[in-house]
Write a structure and sequence with these properties.
globular, 5-stranded mixed sheet, alpha/beta, 5 strands, Rossmann fold
């Protein structure tokens, strides 16, 4: 989404795969793996509680779809293809839908939080290294503080 920028926080409410192209294999939509849901929804009381925690801490975040694939997106061409297939996606990453798929199969809630590291363009590889150092520690502290409050 053009309104999402570097270091913005996303609390996904659903995941799907941007690189699963199985529409010719049956009654499937873009991003859907055969015999799996079209999207893995993350609606749960646990997720709602974490969202409220973020609000109580005055942490700005967006909620919406995040798409997952097996490639680091580092070109405008890749980004435009994803946007064409998933115009409602807030961001793209490489792990979330796999976690959501496992949680779905074990009937467990999943709380996911994603911070935007780059704009998915030709500068993405340079941005990622500096992003990890800057934002990783902040995210770890936030999660640890939340877990401590649960005790």
């Amino acid at each position: 989404d053009e309104s999402v920028h570097k270091e913005d926080l996303i609390l996904p409410n659903s995941f799907t795969y941007h690189d699963a192209h199985n529409t010719a294999a049956g009654d499937y939509v873009e991003g859907q793996i055969p015999q799996e849901p079209a999207r893995f929804e993350l609606n749960s009381p646990q997720r709602d509680k974490f969202a409220q925690y973020l609000k109580d801490q005055n942490i700005d975040f967006r909620e919406g779809l995040v798409v997952t694939g097996d490639s680091f997106i580092a070109s405008s061409k890749q980004k435009e293809e994803i946007k064409k297939n998933f115009p409602d996606a807030l961001g793209v990453e490489m792990e979330g839908a796999a976690f959501a798929q496992v949680a779905y199969h074990f009937n467990k809630p999943l709380i996911a939080m994603r911070a935007i590291s780059d704009n998915g363009d030709e500068n993405a590889d340079e941005d990622f290294d500096s992003f990890v150092k800057k934002v990783g520690a902040k995210a770890a502290k936030l999660i640890c503080n939340y877990v401590e409050e649960l005790k």
